[in-house]
Structure prediction request, 1600 residues.
Amino acid sequence: MYDEGMPKPSLTDEDLARLSRLQIELPTWGFADTGTRFGKFLQDAAAVTLEDKLDDAAEVHRLTGACPSVALHVLWDVPDGEAAAVRSEATKRGLRIGSVNPNVFQDQRYRFGSVANASPAIRARAVNHLLESVRLASELGSNTLALWFADGTNYPGQGNVRRRKRAFEAALREVHEAMPPSMTMLVEYKPFEPAFYFTDIADWGMAYVHARKAGPRAKVLVDTGHHYPGQNIEQIVAFLADESMLGGFHFNDRHYADDDLTTGSIDPARIFRIFVEILSAERDAGSDLPIEYMIDQSHNIKPKIEAMLQTVMTIQELFAKALLVDQEVLDDRRLMNDVVGAEECLKSAFATDVRGELAGWRRSRGLPESPLEAHRLGGYEARVAVDRVRRKAASSASYA
Amino acid sequence: MYDEGMPKPSLTDEDLARLSRLQIELPTWGFADTGTRFGKFLQDAAAVTLEDKLDDAAEVHRLTGACPSVALHVLWDVPDGEAAAVRSEATKRGLRIGSVNPNVFQDQRYRFGSVANASPAIRARAVNHLLESVRLASELGSNTLALWFADGTNYPGQGNVRRRKRAFEAALREVHEAMPPSMTMLVEYKPFEPAFYFTDIADWGMAYVHARKAGPRAKVLVDTGHHYPGQNIEQIVAFLADESMLGGFHFNDRHYADDDLTTGSIDPARIFRIFVEILSAERDAGSDLPIEYMIDQSHNIKPKIEAMLQTVMTIQELFAKALLVDQEVLDDRRLMNDVVGAEECLKSAFATDVRGELAGWRRSRGLPESPLEAHRLGGYEARVAVDRVRRKAASSASYA
Amino acid sequence: MYDEGMPKPSLTDEDLARLSRLQIELPTWGFADTGTRFGKFLQDAAAVTLEDKLDDAAEVHRLTGACPSVALHVLWDVPDGEAAAVRSEATKRGLRIGSVNPNVFQDQRYRFGSVANASPAIRARAVNHLLESVRLASELGSNTLALWFADGTNYPGQGNVRRRKRAFEAALREVHEAMPPSMTMLVEYKPFEPAFYFTDIADWGMAYVHARKAGPRAKVLVDTGHHYPGQNIEQIVAFLADESMLGGFHFNDRHYADDDLTTGSIDPARIFRIFVEILSAERDAGSDLPIEYMIDQSHNIKPKIEAMLQTVMTIQELFAKALLVDQEVLDDRRLMNDVVGAEECLKSAFATDVRGELAGWRRSRGLPESPLEAHRLGGYEARVAVDRVRRKAASSASYA
Amino acid sequence: MYDEGMPKPSLTDEDLARLSRLQIELPTWGFADTGTRFGKFLQDAAAVTLEDKLDDAAEVHRLTGACPSVALHVLWDVPDGEAAAVRSEATKRGLRIGSVNPNVFQDQRYRFGSVANASPAIRARAVNHLLESVRLASELGSNTLALWFADGTNYPGQGNVRRRKRAFEAALREVHEAMPPSMTMLVEYKPFEPAFYFTDIADWGMAYVHARKAGPRAKVLVDTGHHYPGQNIEQIVAFLADESMLGGFHFNDRHYADDDLTTGSIDPARIFRIFVEILSAERDAGSDLPIEYMIDQSHNIKPKIEAMLQTVMTIQELFAKALLVDQEVLDDRRLMNDVVGAEECLKSAFATDVRGELAGWRRSRGLPESPLEAHRLGGYEARVAVDRVRRKAASSASYA
Prediction:
């Protein structure tokens, strides 16, 4: 009796079509050296220039066919007046610019906050950078402004919560107004780090309120690592979807805090359940939800491109498993309060090995069955390392 | 230089007037035997009947002068058709009925949820109980409907998050419509327990969205024990206050989860900072915020009345310390980004010993300087225990 | 290159033999009604008497062939002088008594602790119960004394940590001395609940120190739900195994605290990784480790036997996946610091669908391919419910 | 009745003598610029050279009289062959070298671990650095080797838990053997960061086992920020004290993870309770416990010296409050299970304002009543900033 329709025996053509529409955006910063406050560990093949990053992203897209866009970090990736050149570099590699990420946290001026700074001059400077990012995004051909703010305080008393909140409201409204009609603003939340007493946009609720006030094209950005211990992320995802406020994801995994580990490396069932919620909402909506799927990880000790390929393949596997859930059977069992039966709908889909089917799907699309293996065999990393090491040696850059 | 105006050397008359307006509601269930899932520990003096509970609440109010109202649990405290009698019993003791708490979690029918149950019949039953509670509240002279829902699921797949959310929206709107104009609906949130996969109203964000949709008289109820590890409660409080959505508190303390320990027993600085945020908002508003301050604790091993008195005294102390914060000096230091100086404004007020001043303030109001000591000396507990033990022995009630 | 040896293409005969030796102990209390402090939800088919519980355990063993022993709770399951009868009842059903669990937490006398109570008389009473449990265990044919203590405090100041610790040392030593040479003492740890300030044996370190001091046959019992948010359980398991101090498991799953959900329902990868560590230690040891695998769950809303069957099947699946890890390839990759490659060894095994192989393995042992489906089809639950409901109605028992 | 002896009305001469013996070690790295992985915020007055750091430490000691020793970081502070010079620089400023901290985490070679690295050569290199640090410590006149290891892994499968554990055992034993009889080894634990799947010495239990195996002069180092959410630190402290395994503290505070905030800024009651446990153990021992009290904070946005002074003053205040606890009355109440009364012993001491008494105590020792105020008025920071800014500008160092 448990076998009937549970799970669907294999991915249907419709499932594979949906999977083919799942595009995963790559962050340029995921190809560069990263670390913790205790230091960066350097890799010979790590990207140095924006061109390197685009090369690497193109390699990932070439092997997966699923990553046509890259997320840019304004400060790190787009030199003054170079937006057109950046866009053209991307296009040359078969890529487009996805989300544009302003940076109002790195400059020494933002030590005590950006948009929520006590100083009107610094607030204005931060807002100007955001407005400039809107313009840049347009020039870059991007429709997505992804906003993460490090604003917050480290000590009780340091900041006025409500005054800072109102500063955020004003700033986001101003930026929203400046956005062209086609642009979406994504508001990210994060409980802590680098601020340790409070972050101004600490949780999904604050991001939701701020996005609502900013305007109709502001949505919430869910970074899977930005939650408190025990928070049920898939519930938040479903809740936001029902409010039409789910704008996108920064995917990664974690064991403790914002560890920025490879997606699905620690708790793959969690990512699976997030996809189950999204597909359930899409089933009710009758169409794909307009969600940006982005990777945001810190590959401190993994080879950058390998980590990216592993991530894309894992996301596809978990998405495919979620597609296997028979939502109709699931609903029936829910209505009967058959707790075990409903749970088995999910467990059974999750237990199904979809790797063979995905290999075939890739082959049929002219892609290597295992992008990770193809990459390892292809020698790309060794090849670029030679040149990058030479260039790094030539530069006088030192590292903290 | 650090001494100037920091903190205010002592409580002003205005401060004491504000402190005198701080009314703390007592929950009837805090006087009865409580426990954990591993069993209840019984106390001779624990209240058995509603009359006992009202007697105990009256004793606390007699000694503190700060607790004129009691929160009722509809199912446990108000027998059918007895609202007028209950109200009269309270009045006789110099008390009034504060918040009215429906109960849609105890009945076996609610095993799979109340308002979010998959069954329309059970949903209707739950909503009817809520509507009946509105009527009862009116009869009891109460203006506050306090809603806590145990609804949630234990397993992935078990429930449809979005369908359940919509059921909540419909139910709360219906109840809000039935409320008289003078009544406030408080929507409580809680991450888990008794549901262990998700609770339908899990955090302040969900309570906020539901309250907004229910209607203008619905606000959020903050239980200090209903947060994830690391969540900054005072920030949430300030955020809600700024949204005019902070309706009330259930005070208690915790080390781990919803431990329901005595307020301020584990982290007194936290409660102090919550009061600092409220007083800051009141300063800007120019008036007291309309917030219900309620105790919600589980005195498993402490004598019930002692625990209540200790709680009221602790809340008053921490509120008085918060009154000592010189918000003007604090603001100046914030504007200068004097992090240490701003923090010292809070630390200094917190370090001040206000017990002597509070003793004098109580004396001036005809109250014992130490309500706890007066209670211990007064012999109330021993006295009521005799009768209560006798009555318990006479009843055939057994306990799990 | 990633395909070589990773994972082993299927379970070897040796793997299946290891799987066949995996015996999972059932707790009698898992068949009875359970709940939270907010109430118990009652099930018609829930076991009432010890005979019911043994019947249910026998049903699970009949269908799985993997659960020949049951864990008893001395206070609930073994009436005075009835040990021989209990043992015989088990034997009649093809079962044996596994771990014996004393109960020094339920009696009102233990309100302020058992073995760590400030009162010498109550301490002695508790120790006597433990010694009596040792005797009972012998009579019951059990070789395992499983000790969980609810001892702890709710408030700062309440207890003297060091004095309580020494009381535990003395008690455990005394009990250890009284154990026959064949008996193992398992010391369980738990951070909180029902104590909310501290539990005397709060973490694995405290259990380790106490077990070391008690004597050579005392080991640590790991309950998978008894950890802090973020703790890496598989690391603790490996650490204890290396110290020859890993005595056994209480399996369950959790999202927040000690939720006692079905094993693998929330984070199946976690359980898988625990098994990978155990199998790695067994590979080095050249033999199975002497570990007691026990279930300890609270099936509040799931049918009891279904939940048990689902748990056994899930444990077997995750154990089988762990068997698929090619530890040799894994070690090679570790030595090369091939982080991605080493991780893929685990991911690949985890992704493999072993349900078909397990169905075949069960069939070859004369068992139903799906014990859960066989149970649902068999009608056992409906059958026993009739009689149990009748008996419950006849008794005057009330429920909190 | 609650007034009798509770708390002691004021600090006795004996209390003040104990307070005077409380020496708090300053970390050189606490005077330099620090940050998060998102960047460092630079301060004009931040120390650049070891001489700067010693100057700053001397300023703190001059104002507090409580900080005669400084902790050194071998790699950052002691150039090859310069130990004698470093020692002499300290002596010139009235300071001595306290704990010596090896660094086996920063070099690129330690990317995959130091002492637990899979490579024998890198393990040997790490052990050599530790042995060299022992020699250096002797030359520096230090008796304390403080060991923190960043070793750990980021991904499941990456490392062999048990093999790494054994590598640690071997290394610590070798280092312990090389230590002169007067030297103490402190083994620190930390759950995560920079490793995100597991840290090899993740909790106090692992540090305890490793210290026990290393030898009799190895003890556990408790960093107050290195715990899981909800862990009861004061219980661990008392437990370790009872095992004679409590070697020292790294003081700081936190809201979320290892935030390295100023001690007592977030949860002052926690630090107070830690001191209560230590003083209780000292009372039983009849003497001070041999514990190293060290500060380990990251003053990202606070002026470095101000933060240090604030920390020392806060520690002294909380220690003084702990001295006020009447341990005799406390014990009586514990024996009577007077939970409220016992708790009030702590609450009452904590509520007492000791700042006036501490001001007098400082004055009597020839120190400023408020070291923080004296420092602000003294102009030290502005003075050193001039020179330091000039030197920084002259150097070509860049910062990440």
